[in-house]
Write a structure and sequence with these properties.
By secondary structure, this protein is mainly beta. The protein is built from one helix and eight strands, in the order ββββββββα. It holds the Pfam family Nucleoplasmin.
Length: 137
């Protein structure tokens, strides 16, 4: 698998950024958003960042993921919020600049072929764990 760093900036002139992969690519792609923050030149206004994607019915949906303001919340950690491409990040309110950072994980199908017998793993774990004994008084 490959792990790539991703970053983009949303501003008044560039209000959206779309991350997509080649439709013919046979790999599994995961996009994880780590941090959304205001950068140099931001005004003290509400900057709302939305993630635009598709739901299980293939309908477009937009979900706000960050509301940043220079004086009270200039940065938000999203703890690797996982998304499946294609996905668009949109500055729904404010003029930015807002920087988004995260990572893109590519798992090639042939890499995902390892299979373990769950019974073997649980047996090994049981052997390695020492029994819990009552405390001595």
């Amino acid at each position: 698998s490959d792990l790539l760093f991703l970053g983009c900036e949303l501003t008044a002139s560039t209000k959206s950024y779309t991350f997509q992969v080649d439709e013919e690519d046979d790999s599994d792609h995961i996009l994880a958003l780590s941090v959304v923050c205001l950068t140099d030149g931001a005004k003290d206004e509400c900057n709302v960042v939305e993630v635009v994607g598709r739901n299980h019915k293939n309908q477009e949906i937009a979900v706000p993921v960050a509301n940043l303001k220079l004086s009270c919340q200039p940065l938000l950690s999203l703890d690797n919020f996982k998304l499946q491409p294609p996905v668009t990040f949109r500055l729904a309110a404010g003029s930015g600049p807002v920087h988004l950072a995260g990572w893109h994980s590519i798992v090639h199908r042939e890499d995902a072929s390892f299979e373990e017998d769950d019974d073997d793993l649980s047996g090994e774990m049981e052997e390695e764990l020492a029994p819990i004994m009552p405390a001595k008084k």
